[in-house]
Amino acid sequence: MRIFVNLLKKILLLFAISVLTACSGIKVEEYAATPPDLNLKTFFNGNLRAYGMLQNRTGRVTRRFVADIFATWDGENGRLVEEFHFDDEEVQHRTWLISHQGNGVYVGTADDVLGEATGRASGMAFHWQYDLLVPWKDNEIAVELDDWLFLVDEEHLLNKTTLTKFGFKVGDLTLVIEKL
Q1: Residues 118, 134, 94, CA angle at the centre, nearest 5°?
Q2: Cis peptide before 135 (omega within 30 of 0)
Q3: For residue 70, which of 42, 46, 101 has the smallest C-alpha distance?
Q4: Which of 50, 44, 27, 51 is nearest to 122 (CA)?
């Protein structure tokens, strides 16, 4: 019963976050007074696991995945090594190099990120944006990601990302990340 109640709470929180992030013009600073504070260097440290799904523009779930993440920090510079296992047996790898610029501002790079990801943490939230190369048929295409992370508690984080191409929504990515 306790597991069911906890799962229901997480689903309701995810729904509330989805409603909040669906509204245009939300600024991460609006979460400044919303605890618990998300410190990327604290949460993304050590072993983590993510469970997620990708939805197309109509909302249909097209892929599910589990990802193992190993994160370390050296001062203001972090490294996140990710390994994604998709339900169609595809495996993807990504290594993020992230740098804290001060005042909650972060920049990040990865091999499949075009340029830099830029973002800001405030209160329980972190918002960043970047262009990502994703596999498409026998090629790759660049999509823009509007990525929101919300700290639920010290061990759980919710991530909701909208993917667009030429300003049109092409999908959503939703995942839960837990510290192991």
Answers
A1: 65
A2: no
A3: 46
A4: 27
Phi, psi dihedral angles at 37 (to 5 degrees): -70, 135
DSSP string for residues in 143-171? EEEEEEEEEEETTEEEEEEEEEETTEEEE
For residue 31, what is the DSSP state?
G
At 13-69, the pLDDT tens digits run 555 555 444 545 899 999 999 999 999 999 999 999 999 999 999 999 999 999 999
Q: Radius of gyration (Cα) for the chain, nearest Å?
A: 16
Burial class of 174 by CB neighbour count within 10 A (0 to 12, 13 to 18, 19+): middle
Q: CA-CA distance, 43 to 156, in Å (whole number)? A: 9
What's the rounded Cα separation, in Å, for the pair 22 and 113? 24
Amino acid at 87: D
How is residue 100 written in tokens? 């804290």
